[in-house]
Design brief:
The structure is a single chain. The strands form ten sheets. Strands 21, 22, 23, 24, 25, 26, 27, 28, 29 and 30 form a ten-stranded antiparallel beta sheet that branches. Strands 31, 32, 33, 34, 35, 36, 37 and 38 form an eight-stranded antiparallel beta sheet that branches. This protein has four domains: 101 residues, no CATH class; 401 residues, Alpha/alpha barrel (Glycosyltransferase); 147 residues, Galactose-binding domain-like (Jelly Rolls, Sandwich); 134 residues, Jelly Rolls (Sandwich). The chain is built from 14 helices and 38 strands. By secondary structure, the protein is an alpha+beta fold. The termini are far apart. It is globular. Helix 5 packs parallel to helix 7 and helix 8 packs antiparallel against helix 9.
């Protein structure tokens, strides 16, 4: 048969095949059933998942369960920082002191953006991409990361040329910041410490006098990240029509690539290694020389080991040339004497002389580290799909991905902490309370999409799919995948009996098959132009208060657990431990929450993220009554719709309103008999022009002194070395541990301590508010506190006090009203509760 005739017959047969499939009805997996099949859920907001995540099923239950767990993990870290900043993500479940604004840390930002870009709502990823450049207090260069490349990755999935071009000056500024501080023209490479690479104690730093921050080196990590960033910024410059800038960035990237491949590659050990920037010496006086790779000098000079997972990072971004033999590095990945482990890979190869497992934080000399595992899997997928090689196989990839999925377990349930023992999978020593739980320092779903399912995002409507999933699987499905304003479904059906489209691999758009083949292999298709979508401006949450402003302000009728601050901190999770919640006290028929927004805001939605811990008697309320203050009375509002129709726990309960101006609102929760209710977050959504200005604090706070200079002056009998007394009257209230804005008497030897406000002149006042700090540990609400005023010769107690709440309560405002008094000084004396000490975030004194 002649070639042209054969080709014509192939196209004819393929056309018949596609037409037959289009005429049939694909049986896509039911998203609700996929969600309900998993039993680990704490966040049971299935409506949110249906609206936001793509769905996946396959024969491997570990891979599938971890897929859904990772989306729930993401929700625990999703943070609404402020109306102007929008959404960002935390790394730790808390906001440690080294994090930036709203708890974000740059180290995992690339992973987080890669994951979040697959959410159907583009806002989450685009807000976070913008956060790093537009939010005061963000710290984009505190740790190595690949922000520009990740932002371009968001654009590939959710194109937004306007947003991208607007970020171009920011991306350039950030890149130049790296270049100014970390680029060495003599080496033609970027240097970094292991610590600021996210690898605190590593096999190179441990050979120096400073095992935490020693051995700054030209590392394969930062050099590769900034190579990728330069190329990403060049693409944005292309969009802007700035060809000179794009050309310069590509030339810069070419130089970095050349130097990385020639200077960081060891042909003897066939691997990429860090190269020391300076001479180093260990505690025994053994010297490592500048310009040497790991173990070329020093105590282990001449060793054939020294390999770390970071040697695979260049493939994460497709840097290495494909014709120079670099792929030989991968021989060690699946070697039991190399990186292979039951819960691996190990961060350092097994036989390394400095291989060491520790049961405490941040030793990267062998632990299984999800951050590096995710990088290795992404690099491996690129190697298998984009490079001709035979060192590792697709079966190796699936084996490693399955290992990674199984590592997401603790006591048989989905879980992830900072690092795991590579032999046992235990997180012991890397699982700090209220810190490491459900750690978001890696990606997973992006690996399933771009590697296992082989979905390769591109710069235009051309799409390539090249799955690494095994052909031996009977099925897999990746459905409702957002891509360039389309929804795509990818189905593999080995027998043709599962999805109703016949045997093979099928790509669907809008219910129609647009590409297919009878076996597992590459699909190439050009998608139609993206539909024109008229997008509503993103609403803002006016209730959130992470910046310590006086407004918005929430008060409650009772508190048994948690803090009022947790109600509007921008985080919602439903775990009992660690807690992020407010729970009403027992014994009441109903409780109220009042929010004062400080100024009229146009609101069209109220959301209450209700708790449910049935074994503790915490359940959803029987009824929720919403009222607004009209200036004279509370007025009930039913709203036009409620979702769900009746209150339900462990999910957001939405009250949709016709737009209405609200300054103050009251929510009454009617408790079921002998039960109590609680929330993890309260949100008031509406439209607003940006930037949104916070309302000013009310006038009349006689203690207010934002500068800390002059009067009114705060002093104390003892101030913790970790805190500052002038923060007690700076006008900022932060009930959480970070950012630190408090005075405490932590470490005081006294059973009582006092805080004093000296007004500098006589002042008349009748109300005091104490924003009591309580970390449930060394600082707790006091057993009692006493208010006194100075009459010129002695301290005198106040008269006719009325306290709300009656007993000192941490994590909220404690109000004391009394007969008006005139004095030059006010003192609060705290009687500490047991071994704990007292503290407050702010004191207010009102006329």
């Amino acid at each position: 048969m002649r070639p042209l005739v054969a080709l014509a017959l192939i196209f004819f047969a393929q056309g018949l095949f596609l037409r037959a499939q289009n005429e049939g009805q694909a049986r896509l997996p039911d998203p609700q059933k996929l969600l309900e099949a998993e039993k680990f859920w704490q966040n049971r907001d299935f409506s949110w998942y249906r609206q936001n995540i793509p769905f996946f099923e396959c024969p491997d239950s570990d891979i599938q369960t971890t897929w859904y767990y990772r989306w729930e993990l993401l929700t625990r870290h999703l943070t609404y920082g402020s109306p102007n900043s929008g959404y960002s993500f935390t790394e730790f479940i808390d906001r440690p002191f080294w994090s930036g604004a709203y708890g974000a840390i740059s180290c995992p930002a690339g992973h987080q953006l890669q994951e979040a870009r697959w959410l159907k709502d583009r806002r989450y990823a685009w807000d976070y991409a913008r956060y790093w450049h537009r939010t005061p207090g963000a710290q984009p260069r505190n740790y190595s990361t690949w922000l520009a490349d990740a932002t371009w990755g968001v654009h590939r999935v959710h194109p937004n040329e306007t947003e991208l071009l607007g970020l171009l000056p920011d991306l350039e500024r950030n890149h130049q910041g790296w270049r100014k501080r970390h680029f060495d023209p003599a080496a033609g490479l970027y240097w970094q410490t292991g610590h600021d690479d996210g690898m605190e104690f590593n096999i190179n730093s441990r050979q120096t006098l400073d095992i935490l921050r020693g051995a700054p080196s030209y590392r394969p990590t930062l050099a590769t990240y900034l190579w990728a960033d330069a190329l990403a910024i060049a693409r944005v410059a292309d969009l802007a029509g700035d060809t000179d800038k794009a050309k310069a960035l590509r030339a810069e990237a070419a130089g970095v690539k050349e130097n990385l491949q020639t200077k960081l590659w060891d042909p003897r050990r066939q691997f990429f290694f860090p190269m020391l920037k300076n001479d180093e010496v260990d505690k025994e006086g053994v010297k490592m020389k500048a310009g040497s790779l790991t173990y070329q000098t020093g105590k282990h000079a001449g060793s054939d080991k020294g390999r770390e997972l970071i040697g695979f990072v260049p493939w994460q971004f497709g840097l290495p040339d494909s014709d120079k033999g670099f792929e030989k590095a991968w021989a060690k990945l699946m070697d039991p004497d190399g990186f292979l482990a039951t819960y691996g890979p190990t961060t350092v190869e097994r036989k390394d002389p400095m291989y060491l497992l520790q049961k405490w934080c941040c030793w990267w000399s062998g632990q299984s580290w999800p951050y590096a595992t995710a990088q290795t899997l992404q690099a491996m997928a690129n190697l298998l799909i984009d490079y001709p090689q035979s060192v590792v196989s697709r079966d190796d990839y699936v084996k490693l991905l399955t290992t990674y999925a199984k590592t997401h377990r603790k006591n048989g349930k989905p879980y992830l902490a900072e690092a795991a023992n590579p032999d046992t999978g235990s997180f012991e020593g890397h699982d700090g309370y209220n810190h490491s739980e459900h750690y978001f320092h890696s990606c997973y779903c992006d690996l399933v999409i771009t590697g296992l399912a082989g979905f390769r995002p591109g710069d235009d409507n051309s799409l390539t799919i090249n799955p690494l999933a095994p052909a031996s699987w009977d099925y897999f499905a990746l459905t409702e995948l957002p891509y360039r304003d389309h929804r795509l479904n990818l189905l593999w059906d080995k027998t043709g009996d599962r999805y109703g489209l016949g045997k093979g691999l099928h790509l669907l758009l809008g219910g129609k098959v647009i590409a297919t083949r009878p076996d597992m292999g590459k699909l190439e298709v050009r998608l139609p132009e993206s539909p024109k979508i008229k997008r509503r401006a993103d609403p803002v949450n006016f209730a959130v208060n992470n910046d310590g402003n006086y407004y918005p302000r929430v008060s409650v009728s009772s508190t048994a657990e948690g803090t009022v601050g947790a109600l509007h901190d921008g985080n919602a999770w439903y775990d009992r431990t660690p807690p992020n919640r407010w729970v009403a006290a027992a014994g009441k028929e109903a409780d109220t929450l009042i929010i004062n927004l400080g100024t009229p805001r146009q609101i069209d939605e109220v959301a209450l993220h209700l708790l449910e811990d049935a074994e503790q008697g915490i359940v959803a309320p029987d009824k929720i009554i919403l009222e607004v203050w009209d200036g004279a009375n509370w007025k009930a509002i039913d709203g036009r719709e409620r979702q769900p129709a009746s209150p339900m726990g462990r999910m957001a309960n939405h009250i949709f309103l016709d737009p209405i101006q609200i300054t103050r609102a009251r929510l009454t929760l009617t408790h079921p008999p002998a039960k109590r209710c609680g929330l993890t977050e309260l949100e008031f959504w509406g439209q607003a022009a940006k930037p949104v200005s916070p309302p000013p604090p009310p006038a009349g706070n006689l203690a207010f002194n934002p500068s800390g200079k002059g009067f009114p002056k705060a002093t104390a009998s003892h101030t913790s070395p970790f805190d500052k007394v002038e923060r007690a009257n700076d006008g900022i209230v932060v009930f959480g541990p970070q950012p630190n804005n408090r005075w405490t008497s932590y470490e005081s030897k006294n059973p009582t301590d006092w805080l004093e406000i000296d007004f500098g002149a006589p002042k008349k006042f009748s109300r005091v508010e104490l924003a009591l700090y309580d970390d449930r540990g060394g600082v707790q609400a006091p057993q009692l506190f006493v208010l006194e005023v100075w009459d010129g010769t002695a301290w005198q107690p106040l008269q006719n006090e009325r306290r709300d709440p009656a007993k000192p309560t941490g994590g909220q405002y404690n109000s004391v009203r009394f007969k008006p008094v005139e004095a030059t000084k006010l003192r609060v004396t705290f009687t500490h509760k047991g071994p704990s000490r007292s503290g407050l975030s702010e004191i207010f004194v009102w006329e």
